[in-house]
Amino acid sequence: MSTKSYVERAKAHKNSAARLLLETIARKESNLAVSVDVASSVDFLAIVDVVGPFVCLVKTHIDILEDFTPQVISDLQALSKKHDFVIFEDRKFADIGNTVALQYSSGVHKIASWAHITNAHPVPGPSIIAGLSSVGLPLGRGLLLLAEMSTKGSLATGAYTDAAVQMARANQDFVIGFIAQRRMEPVDEDEDLLVLTPGVGLDVKGDAMGQQYRTPREVVLESGCDVIIVGRGIYGKDPKLVEDIRAQAKRYQDAGWTAYLERIQA
Ligand code: S5P
């Protein structure tokens, strides 16, 4: 289990997006990422503004927005500056290198121009990293590989997960870590692949569509993960209940940070 602090790790990390994330976590004393999965831009920006002070990172699914315009990106970037958080577009690329390079740089969303971090399924093999890094590396971006998933019956296990870890190790200039459920033990002192973990909830164990939740304590203390990703646990009751969303964000921030302090003092 890692007992290194986020501060120590930020100083040593070679990728600028990973460094930015680790520095932000340390500065704000928050390993909480909020996943803002709502369809209206007004609700999206309102939730980001409310949770902003409590998070190190905001995770987006920009293609969910029904009324997307480039103004949403300008507003999101302004909120990122106002509240000091990193932006992660959860695009889950999964195609050949040439196609993902176009999907990442172009189209309506132009993800590479604003998302510090994005992610990809390792299923196509290392060529997906070659495609995405051709766009993202010159911009100082970072990539997470989906080594495991939180869902019941996930196929991302065993040899598939091991192969994802190998792919990350071979591309540590651009691959900064994983979406996974546990820390992957590093092979040497220099390796620092971050683990961002979705499937986190304090009140329920899952949803009706195969999602499975564990607590921040299980994720950060017992499984050694770096960032908890919480969606509906924070705004699920009603995206308009601002006071409740603020209280939930604080609750998850405290739970994630307490678990981290307990881990590094171990
Ligand atoms: O394995 C995964 C990977 C991801 S990125 N399981 C997940 O749930 N996610 C994402 O995390 C998912 O797409 C959603 O945006 C978020 C979890 O949302 P929640 O409302 O269930 O907390």
TrEMBL record:
Task: Give every Orotidine 5'-phosphate decarboxylase domain span.
Answer: 31-245
Keyword Lipid biosynthesis set for record: no
| Entry superkingdom | Eukaryota
How would you classify this enzyme at the top EC level?
A: lyase
Kindly state which reaction or reactions the protein catalyses.
orotidine 5'-phosphate + H(+) = UMP + CO2
Q: What is its EC number?
A: 4.1.1.23
Q: In which pathway does it act?
A: Pyrimidine metabolism; UMP biosynthesis via de novo pathway; UMP from orotate: step 2/2
- Alphabetically list the UniProt keywords: Decarboxylase, Lyase, Pyrimidine biosynthesis
Annotated NCBIfam families: pyrF (TIGR01740)
Q: Tell me which family the UniProt entry assigns to this protein.
A: Belongs to the OMP decarboxylase family.
Q: What is this protein called?
A: Orotidine 5'-phosphate decarboxylase
Q: Which organism is it from?
A: Mycena chlorophos (Agaric fungus)
